[in-house]
Amino acid sequence: MRNQIITKEFLSAMLKSLTKDYRVVAPVRNGKVLEFMGISGDTEIVMNDEIPYKSAKDCFFPQVEKLLTFKDGEVAANINAEKTIIFGMKPCDAEALRVLREVFLAGQYQDPFFQSHFENTLIIAVGCVREKPGCFCAERGIDKSFTDFCDILLNDEGGEEYTVVYLSEKGMDLLGRFEETKHILPPPERKAAETAPEVKKVELNQELDETAYFDIIDWGKATEICQGCGICTFICPTCHCFDLKDVSMQGATDRFRCWDSCMYPKFTLHASGHNPRASTKERYRQRVLHKYLYVPQNFGCTACTGCGRCIRSCPAGMSIRKVVEEVMEVQP
Amino acid sequence: MSFEIQKEKIKQICRELLEKGEVDVIIGYTAGEIEGTRIPYIFSKPEEADKLEWDERCTPNLCTYLHGRKDKVGIVAKPCDVRGIVNYLVESQLKKDKVYIIGVDCAGMKDDQGNPSPGCGECSVKQPPLYDMRVENPDVTNEKGAPPEAADPADLMEKLERFQNELQKCILCYSCRQACYGCYCQVCFMDRGVPNWQPATPDLGAKMVYHLGRAMHLSGRCVECGACERTCASGVNIRYLIKEISDFIEKTYGYKTGLDAEDQPVMTTYAFDDKEIGFLGGDADA
């Protein structure tokens, strides 16, 4: 395996040299938090086991994205994603991207904007050394040190080195550009048993209809401390609800897609003034069922990878894992 | 007196209140899923009192959970929580007979690194200004703590730069609003469709509209609990701005929020001799 190793120093220099041809996104310290940000030659890339507070989903599904421009009776689509390299996505984040791909590209409708970002991005994932407080990826069936939903996978060997493998042609080509890495190989075949340790999974029974879950637990009690702030949806690697907004200025109209959040009252407010999800109880239930029931039923994968961000960042200390476990105890 | 002794006292008070049926529920703290964290919990049975926690990690402002409740509520309240309750009384958002305040002397809260929690370092109100039952800590007095880390620059352009530097981190998720005891508007100005205050895209302008609007709305209402800064996942500190407004109000009108339930809300009281320097500029002493 000795040949499969690169130093962090080399990797940092390599990423910086790539900024000439790509937008390179990596974990960077921004004030008190660690965040995925575009880097330049003098940015300090954080290469420890910390997990950025927010996922890197905005590289594929930006918080604000101009989709269309209407002018003089013509409509122009803005499909021009920059070539991007993301360094530092954890296996939970990479697996979450698999969920987004299913939602945006594999269903009845294909989203050309997401597709453009997806195809123009190369992912350098980094395995986790240890679980962070609130993490539950194992219970979600994800290996914290391995994912094949990336182009290059690194694992921290402690100290100043990473082991490297590539998992796609894109990854191989990138490594082939550097003398120091062109000999790197793909990972040896992994047996399923190795990658999936026996842990009781946190999941809902997808055979059941949603109505079976509407009153299965006291959702009011489960959500009484929720403040409805919606930070869980913003930092979540799989949350993907959005709103479309038109902005007219100087004879042209731009149509933007912006993140929205099911935790906000306005999310479901009808023009009549009626709101079918009147309180936090209904909104939080929707969030849980969307992740653990509707996406599995519609796309065959659960929209939660156990990254633990929502648990760590919740100002009231709500835990989606605890709530799902509470439901699991009573579900038929 | 340590947190541990206070905790046993609070537990006993809560158990008795629930046993005697003097309150329907008690809002207090319990252990969170992440080790060491303390989260809000609504206690409704006497036996639940064993789960109650009180230590230097009890950071959330529980006052915000009182708003809109119809039942009789007991609350484990730090001095900043009590200041929030007092301001609810001042603003007629709560009837005193609907709340039983277990006021707890507070030696200051810590974050997970052991540093003072936002607001705690410079806190000057460490004993509850109003209570039905007080849990004392003789080591704690109402002395002013350390001044805030960075004083606000005097130059207007520097002020703007500092403000915008903070805002580049903001993702406009509105967590600070939701965590704030004082943000209880049924429909926030940012959520209104008509007029639409919120620019269509969450750029710097939208962030400025929101944070300046919220700061203005909190004039003379902030109780310095630090919830906004503590809650922010993105690490934005907008509290310094609101603190500046609070200091201005204290200097101009001699009013400190949440200390006296008989007060009139400072910004809705009119006086003929008011120089209105908040609008017109000038100096309070001139």
Structure description:
The complex is a heterodimer of chains A (332) and B (286). Chain A has 332 residues and is an alpha/beta fold. Chain A has two domains: 2-64 and 79-176, no CATH class; 210-239 and 262-330, no CATH class. Chain A contains eleven helices and eleven strands. The longest helix of chain A has 20 residues, at 280-299. Chain A is globular. The model of chain A has no long low-confidence stretch (mean pLDDT 92). In chain B, 29% of the residues lie in helices and 9% in strands. Chain B is built from eight helices and five strands, in the order αβββαββαααααα. Chain B has a five-stranded mixed sheet with strand order 2-1-3-4-5. The A-B interface holds A 30-33, 35, 53-54, 63-64, 133-134, 224-225, 227-231, 234-235, 245-247, 256, 258, 261, 264-266, 311-313, 315-319, 321-322 and B 32-35, 37-42, 60, 64-65, 169, 171, 173-175, 177-179, 191, 200-203, 227, 230-231, 233-236.
List the helices and strands and how they pair.
The complex is a heterodimer of chains A (332) and B (286).
Chain A: E1 5-7, H1 8-18, E2 23-30, E3 33-38, E4 64-71, E5 74-77, E6 84-89, H2 91-106, H3 112-119, E7 121-127, E8 152-156, E9 161-166, H4 169-176, H5 192-195, H6 211-214, H7 219-222, H8 231-235, E10 242-249, E11 252-259, H9 280-299, H10 309-313, H11 320-330
Parallel strand pairs in A: 2-6, 6-7, 7-8
Antiparallel strand pairs in A: 1-9, 2-3, 4-5, 4-11, 8-9, 10-11
Chain B: H1 3-19, E1 25-31, E2 38-43, E3 73-77, H2 79-90, E4 99-104, E5 133-135, H3 156-167, H4 175-179, H5 204-217, H6 227-231, H7 239-253, H8 277-280
Parallel strand pairs in B: 1-3, 3-4, 4-5
Antiparallel strand pairs in B: 1-2
